[in-house]
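Record 1 of the preview.
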Amino acid sequence: MCLIKIQQMKILIIVLIIQIVTIQSVQASEKNKWRLIKNENEIRVYIYESKSNDIVKAKARTIVNFPINTIKLIIDDISHRHEWVPYLKNSKALSIYKNNKRIEYSHFSAPWPASDRDFVYQIELISESNKQLVYKMRSIESSLMPENNYRIRAELYESIYTLTALNKETTVVDLVFHADPKGWLPNWIINIIQRVLPYKILKNLKSRLKLQLKTKKMKDNKKD
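->
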């Protein structure tokens, strides 16, 4: 009986080892496929080309000298998001915030002759601690915002903000972006947008943080 249990334990350990090795191999493979394409203004941009999708996935990373909660306040402020997200006309919540998630709507402008795009998506805070915050967004179908004939309903495959605190005053900001604007745009144009947009978002976010700090200092000086 003891020999049978020992053999079962050995088999279980072997299975667990195989699973761990497989997971690590997949993660390593995905990591190796991220290719650096831009390093400017202390922002690094990478792309990931998948065989299953002709639209590239992009990732941008930067380090800012601001606390993690300061950045969280900006991301959570949906009514002012258009002031720093490129091409965004407006955003609004379509549902109440519940269980760390809600449904949102965003309307993006497009240059003539292209039509404007809009997204209906769920935003979820999937990880929250003093050291890290992770927001994940993806398109969903919802009757809360029907499609508009003057806009094309785009699809957000995945958008992830990851805020990682290095210390109380310094935060790493990662943004993964993967979307299909739909319509008649060819993939080569879409892939140009994919490469540029995450960089512009983080660049504008950094400018927004600096403006907020400058405004705060001006208010503090007036009080003095």
